[in-house]
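Notes, p. 3: input format for complexes.
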Amino acid sequence: MLEQYLDINPEVAAALAAGKPVVALESTIISHGMPYPQNVETALRVEQIIRDNGAIPATIAILKGRLKVGMTPDEIEYLGKAGLDVIKTSRRDIPFIVAKQVDGATTVASTMILAAMAGIKVFATGGIGGVHRGAEQTFDISADLQELANTNVAVVCAGAKSILDIGLTLEYLETQGVPVIGHQTDTLPAFYTRESDFGVDYRLDTPEQIADVLKAKWAMGLKGGVVVANPIPEAHQLDRAMIDEVILDALAQMDDQGISGKASTPFLLAKVAEKTKGSSLKANIELVFNNAKLAAEIAVEYVK
Ligand code: PSU
Ligand code: MN
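Output follows (304 residues plus pseudouridine-5'-monophosphate):
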């Protein structure tokens, strides 16, 4: 049934069949999260980092209506160049992109869905979507959170960005039974900075300990994902007061321009990059590399 829609890259399929570690990667971060050509360079480097750490990368997107688990470098280049012209595709969008046979860049939510279809358990990205600031008025809550509630994939990220309401995001995850693990930290990282004002649910210090939790959770049939929050390396973090101010400014501009819904996150990311003159982009790239390494290490432990 699924084969009618799903194309698993032969290298990825062989790895999965042999019980070897595989790490999923999303494509909205390529099309909507970073400018060209840094997006493509980053995506290819991330794949190499995963290989260097003993796992096989599977970058995920929808191309001409086919669900692609594992893209070729040419496909990544194509998607990165197309950028914002590619449709940002979350759970609700998948059937339309497939039926129309067009291209879709997968968010955390839809990447989790496709990863789960293929049997991939570990996924690396930069940041997850969450409960937006002002959500008590707008109801803007990323579908990523609901996917984490339902789909059995661990998402390694650098915590939640303060374009979101971090406290409400944690409350939502708690309600949905999604554990938030801090990798070598007691504090939830805030993407560009190693710390936020919030704690994590559990601190674990090694990939092995994290893999043990995943095994226990899914072996018992406790459905849903896990957030593994991995702080940006010290040398690359940004100044917290500076980034907080930039984000407040970007949020005010978003309101002024009446931007809402699925356009919010890409707008805020682009504004922050513009206002920090690229230092946020550099930090973003470095934290993704760091997450790719940890995700590969967790995937290696998970298959043991
Ligand atoms: N946060 C980032 N970079 C990103 C995204 C979030 O720091 O590129 C992307 C991810 O693909 C995430 C999506 O799944 O934005 C969330 O969008 P929304 O809030 O519209 O669900
Ligand atoms: Mn939203």
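The pocket of manganese (II) ion (ligand 2) is lined by residues 140, 142, 261-262, 264 (CB under 6 Å).
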